[in-house]
């Protein structure tokens, strides 16, 4: 898995290069709760000891064959000129394929991506097949030493997440979910503490697709198929420039997993199932994950 981690690392480092197709949003308008009267409040995990931000990695293993595909929409603050020069940090064909195949998915979107592609952000934010969640404002790391990404200072972390929610809202994502994916998947106790109080659940994954900068779609697809278990969360990207094989990977793994009896769900469904277990929400020891 080291090579996988490294390729993802490269993706994140160039992450500036990665424009994923994720989305972030607030439940209703406030991450902590006040969902609009008509909207169902999305499930979140209970905070950990000391009200530490809870971390979700995968759903229950024993409640049937469900799997959540997640797509990160990475974009850094300085990639605007590259986008203007024709580089594609979006991946409309991938989104189109997910729609054609009727695969529900969760998009972790940076605020910068929403600003760059507001029409797509709005479309995703209004499509019940998708849920849009938060991947920071411009893909800066929340720990030191995270694939060479620039870092957000501790006292700016909460503001960064809120700025992303604001950008999503402005772009037309009315109900971004109270889920946050750390850039690069890097977090520690300090980062979890910094985000406590805004009501987000940190969402990691248990299956690394390895799609970042991959050129062999079959190898990525095989890695996904080898890794998926009931309740799995798969991390992928929706940025053509940084993850050019992802649409083909989806075309391969979706029919195969369905043949195996898997049902595709959004992250919120897995979190809801997790909450429904007798043991309640998961509370994991903070650590630094490397990939994403
Ligand atoms: Zn990312």
From TrEMBL:
Domain (NodB homology) ranges: 65-265
Signal sequence coordinates: 1-19
Region of interest: Disordered: 25-55, 273-292
Gene3D superfamilies noted in UniProt: Glycoside hydrolase/deacetylase
UniProt GO molecular function: hydrolase activity, acting on carbon-nitrogen (but not peptide) bonds
Biased composition (Low complexity): 25-39
Swiss-Prot/TrEMBL GO biological process terms: carbohydrate metabolic process
Transmembrane segments: none
Domain of life (superkingdom): Bacteria
Name used for this protein in its record: Polysaccharide deacetylase
């Amino acid at each position: 898995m080291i090579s996988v981690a490294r390729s993802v690392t490269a993706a994140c480092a160039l992450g500036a290069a990665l424009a994923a197709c994720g989305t972030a949003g607030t439940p209703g308008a406030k991450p902590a709760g006040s969902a609009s009267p008509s909207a169902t409040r999305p499930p979140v995990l209970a905070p950990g000891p000391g009200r530490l931000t809870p971390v979700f990695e995968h759903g229950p293993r024993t409640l049937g064959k469900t799997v959540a595909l997640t797509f990160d929409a990475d974009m850094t603050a300085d990639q605007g000129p590259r986008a203007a020069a024709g580089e594609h940090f979006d991946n409309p064909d991938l989104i189109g394929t997910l729609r054609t195949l009727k695969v529900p998915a969760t998009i972790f979107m940076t605020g910068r991506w929403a600003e760059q592609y507001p029409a797509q952000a709005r479309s995703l934010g209004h499509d019940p097949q998708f849920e849009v969640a938060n991947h920071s404002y411009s893909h800066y790391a929340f720990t030191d030493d995270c694939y060479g990404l620039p870092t957000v200072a501790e006292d700016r972390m909460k503001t960064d997440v809120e700025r992303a929610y604001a950008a999503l809202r402005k772009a037309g994502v009315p109900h971004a979910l109270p889920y946050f994916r750390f850039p690069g998947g890097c977090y520690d106790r300090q980062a979890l503490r910094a985000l406590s109080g805004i009501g987000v659940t940190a969402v990691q994954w248990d299956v690394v697709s390895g799609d970042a900068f991959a050129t062999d779609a079959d190898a990525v697809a095989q890695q996904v198929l080898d890794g998926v278990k009931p309740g799995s969360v798969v991390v992928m990207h929706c940025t053509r420039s940084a993850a050019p094989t992802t649409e083909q990977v989806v075309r391969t793994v979706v029919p195969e997993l369905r043949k195996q009896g898997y049902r595709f769900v959004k992250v919120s469904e897995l979190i809801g199932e997790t909450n429904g277990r007798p043991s309640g929400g998961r509370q994991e020891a903070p650590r630094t994950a490397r990939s994403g």
